[in-house]
């Protein structure tokens, strides 16, 4: 496996997940609920792909330092974690928008 490509895949999927969640929030502000649900589902799928790559990397490492930790690896981990936090907060904001617009 090409480690650099794998790490980039993690970054891309995490970024896509966050971007789609942000788009869903923008749609929620407009009351476009079908679009919100579609975008959140796509965001979830991208997050699952990112998490799958992360799990693969953890499995390769086996807790023994087999995978080199470098700046790009740290960046990738930061990306997935901020993406996960953003999605959680965005889902809460969307729930508030739904309630206020109902």
From TrEMBL:
Q: Which keywords annotate this record? A: Magnesium, Metal-binding, Phosphotransferase system, Sugar transport, Transferase, Transport
- List, from the UniProt record, the residues annotated as the active site of this protein: 75
Q: Which residues bind Mg(2+)?
A: 78
The residue range of the signal peptide is none
Q: How is the cofactor bound?
A: Binds 1 Mg(2+) ion per trimer.
InterPro entries per UniProt: PTS_IIA_lac/cel (IPR003188), PTS_IIA_lac/cel_sf (IPR036542)
Question: What Gene Ontology terms describe what this protein does at the molecular function level?
Answer: metal ion binding; transferase activity
One Pfam family matching this protein: PTS_IIA
Q: Which EC numbers characterise this protein's activity in its record? A: 2.7.1.-
- Please give the biological process terms from Gene Ontology that the record holds: phosphoenolpyruvate-dependent sugar phosphotransferase system
Q: Which cofactor does it need?
A: Mg(2+)
Q: Which residues carry this modification: Phosphohistidine?
A: 75
Q: Which Gene3D superfamilies match?
A: Phosphotransferase system, lactose/cellobiose-type IIA subunit
Question: Which protein is depicted?
Answer: N,N'-diacetylchitobiose-specific phosphotransferase enzyme IIA component
């Amino acid at each position: 496996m090409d480690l650099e490509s794998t790490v980039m895949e993690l970054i891309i999927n995490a970024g896509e997940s966050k971007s789609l969640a942000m788009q869903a929030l923008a749609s929620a502000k407009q009351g476009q609920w079908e679009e919100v649900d579609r975008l959140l589902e796509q965001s979830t799928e991208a997050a699952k792909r990112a998490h799958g790559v992360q799990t693969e990397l953890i499995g390769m490492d086996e807790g023994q330092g087999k995978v080199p930790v470098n700046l790009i690896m740290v960046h990738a981990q930061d990306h997935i974690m901020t993406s996960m936090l953003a999605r959680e907060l965005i889902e809460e904001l969307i729930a508030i928008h739904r309630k206020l617009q109902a």
